[in-house]
Design a protein that fits this description.
Number of strands: 12
Mean pLDDT: 83
Shape: globular
Keywords: Glycoprotein, Glycosyltransferase, Membrane, Transferase, Transmembrane, Transmembrane helix
GO molecular function: glycosyltransferase activity
Structural class: alpha/beta
Protein name: Glycosyltransferase family 2 protein
Helix content: 40-55%
Pfam families: Glyco_tranf_2_3
Distance between the termini: 76 Å
Strand content: 5-15%
Main location: membrane
């Protein structure tokens, strides 16, 4: 390729600059991740799992893998595990809970399968200082809870995440699971880097993340969380972890990620082509959330400027990645033209071979942390390269289809608006003393003027308390509080407006 530059050197200058820029930042990320250090365990911990931790697991189809996951959670001795499911799954999940630990696992239900409503229901039934959300297949090491709780010793920390690895569904990983494992390796480096540089993170992954309960019990949070709309009319069900992360940033709370073996969970991924549908859903959530963070809420620019940079970089990443194939195609075309007519002297096969060698070398370098642990996965590097270009095209497709908010990989996930309307009607009926609520669709669920002070005012419909302001709960939390409420300085108020 260097010999090729003698034909028309200026053609390569902009692409060389792009390549230098991208790999310079890659080296910076690696260096920052290498110097990152997790928070160690305190000698006298403020928080004890058996007193202060409730694990909330929203699910609709937990199977036998739930037993392994639940047993791994119980090793950390949480006070309680709340399984939140839809009503028709109560029996099967109660049987699973009884087989594991009926004393510490409760199964609660909501009328509709809706993850955010399930999480909200779990929050309302939590009585501990710390809530840990977990997927029903997340397998924890025995030390995960103590290492997560160690971060909350800093009273400004509102949310804590963990690093992750892929747990194969079968005896060996499929190519789809290896691709997922590659992505998690790169993600672990990125989150360690951003946490070390400016303390921020693009997303506290919903596979396992811990939060202060006082933050999540705030009615403003609960209302915004369950009434989250894209462009004012497309209600969101997935993307809950993105919402939670943005809420931490917009309300002045710090976050931290424990990237270490002691807090590294195992999670299953789709072992077949359905993994692509998962990635498509995650990509849409990333587009929507990052654009909100950067251009609508804008807290991220001052709170975590490095994370803001990474978000901007991701906006342009699919375009810069697709520049390579476009350039190679152009060079191949030029190589078919006679030199006397302005063509290039190198044959087309030389250009393709040089490009493939470059791709293989650079992509393998990015995957070295994973290949050090699993060298046998080196045979999947070509698949990872192909997936990278497919992913770039998928990101552009996702950008054009942000109005599609369905789950994509799970049956039984119904209309989010209908589920939310049913919840609102239930709350109104309960407030009015009506024991026979009627489930019906709200005609106009969106009104910006009802919540003028919320950072999510452009997405949230009217508060369920607007018809009866005297019953509006006051429950505000701000960074700087303490675990035991007012007696230790927590800036918290609980009560009802009069």
């Amino acid at each position: 390729m260097l010999y090729l530059t003698s034909d028309n050197f200026p053609v390569f200058v902009p692409f060389g600059v792009i390549g230098f820029y991208r790999y310079l930042w890659f080296l910076i990320r690696v260096a920052a991740a290498y110097t990152y250090r997790p928070i160690p365990l305190p000698e006298n911990p403020t928080y004890i799992a058996s007193e202060d931790v409730t694990i909330i697991v929203p699910t609709i189809d937990a199977g036998e893998e739930f037993k392994e996951a639940a047993n791994s959670w119980l090793v950390g001795k949480p006070k309680e595990i709340l399984i939140i499911t839809e009503e028709k799954m109560l029996g099967p999940l109660q049987d699973l809970a009884n087989q594991v630990d009926p004393e510490r696992i409760r199964v609660l239900t909501v009328p509709f399968a809706n993850k955010r409503l399930q999480m909200s229901h779990g929050i309302k039934n939590c009585t501990t200082d710390i809530i840990v959300f977990a997927d029903d297949d997340a397998i924890w090491p025995p030390t995960l809870l103590p290492y997560v709780l160690a971060c909350f010793e800093d009273q400004k920390v509102g949310g804590v995440g963990t690093s992750q690895r892929v747990q194969p569904c079968g005896d060996r990983m499929t190519v789809w699971e290896v691709l997922a494992a590659f992505r998690l390796t790169i993600r672990n480096i990125e989150i360690a880097c951003s946490t070390h540089i400016d303390g921020g993170i693009p997303c506290l992954s919903g596979r396992t993340a811990a939060y202060r309960t006082v933050i999540l019990k705030d009615p403003e949070f609960l209302h915004g969380f369950t009434h989250d709309y894209w462009l004012g009319k497309y209600q969101l069900n997935s993307g809950d972890d993105k919402f939670l992360t943005r809420w931490m940033v917009s309300h002045g709370w710090s976050t931290y990620v424990q990237c270490c073996k002691e807090a590294e969970l195992l999670s299953t991924m789709k072992p077949n082509w359905r993994f692509l549908k998962q990635v498509l859903r995650w990509t849409r959530n990333t587009w929507r959330s990052d654009m909100r963070s950067l251009f609508m809420e804008r807290y991220i620019w001052t709170a975590h400027p490095y994370v803001a940079y990474t978000m901007v970089d991701k906006l342009f990443n699919p375009f810069t990645l697709l520049v390579g194939p476009c350039l190679v195609s152009y060079l191949i075309y030029k190589s078919t033209i006679p030199i006397d007519s302005g063509g290039y002297h190198l044959p087309w096969w030389n250009i393709i071979l040089s490009y493939m060698v470059w791709l293989t070398a650079t992509r393998t370098a990015k995957l070295l942390p994973h290949l050090w642990q699993r060298p046998q996965d080196i045979i999947y590097v070509p698949a990872f390269i192909a997936f990278g270009y497919y992913f770039a095209v998928m990101k552009l497709y996702a950008l054009c289809t942000l109005h599609e908010t369905g789950w994509g990989t799970r049956a039984g996930i119904g209309d989010a608006s209908a589920a939310t309307a049913a919840m609102d009607n239930n709350e109104k009926a309960a407030a009015a003393g009506n024991n026979n609520p009627v489930y019906q669709q709200r005609v106009d669920p969106y009104n910006n003027s009802q919540n003028p002070f919320s950072p999510f005012r452009d997405q949230a419909p009217p508060s369920p308390y607007q018809d009866n302001p005297s019953q509006t709960p006051i429950y505000a939390a701000r960074a700087g509080g303490n675990r035991r409420g007012e007696e230790e300085g927590m800036e918290m108020q609980v009560g009802y407006a009069r």
